[in-house]
Amino acid sequence: MVTDYIPIFIFFVIVVGFAITTIFLSAIIGKRKITPQKMLPYECGMDPIGQARKPFSVKFYIIAMLFIIFDIEVVFLYPWAVIFKELKIFGLVEMAVFIAILLVGFIYVWKKGALEWE
């Protein structure tokens, strides 16, 4: 029973050895020359404007979360559409309830002004 795990153990030892060897060789062979250009924050090849530590507005995160929530929920429509004929009227009613719940949530978010970008 234990002999069945020997190849896994050998593979694990090889992987850990490779990782440690790579890190060790990088520390020995790699060049370390710190320049002001290297210390600038990377912004897609453009010269940075302002502080890199500038905080984002909370509105950005709220809209991002709302997009993820409503976008992911639409993914559930695809499997339902694939087996729609098998589900018959039950599937139609269940999806209508699902979409109604999403619609109520969307209307609530809209009325609260969470989708306003100011």
Keywords:
single chain, 118 residues, mainly alpha, Methane Monooxygenase Hydroxylase, Chain G, domain 1, 69% helix, flat
Task: Please render the helix and strand layout as text.
Elements: H1 6-29, H2 36-39, H3 58-75, H4 77-82, H5 84-112
- C-alpha-based Rg, rounded: 27 Å
Distance between the termini: 65 Å
In CATH, the topology is named Methane Monooxygenase Hydroxylase, Chain G, domain 1
- The overall average pLDDT, rounded, is 86
The biggest beta sheet reads:
none
Descriptive overview:
- This protein has 118 residues and is mainly α.
- The protein has one domain: Methane Monooxygenase Hydroxylase, Chain G, domain 1, CATH 1.20.58.
- The protein has five helices and no strands.
- The protein has helices spanning 6-29, 36-39, 58-75, 77-82, 84-112.
- The longest helix has 29 residues, at 84-112.
- The N and C termini lie far apart (65 Å).
State the gist of this model.
The chain contains five helices and no strands. With 118 residues, it is mainly α. The N and C termini lie far apart (65 Å).
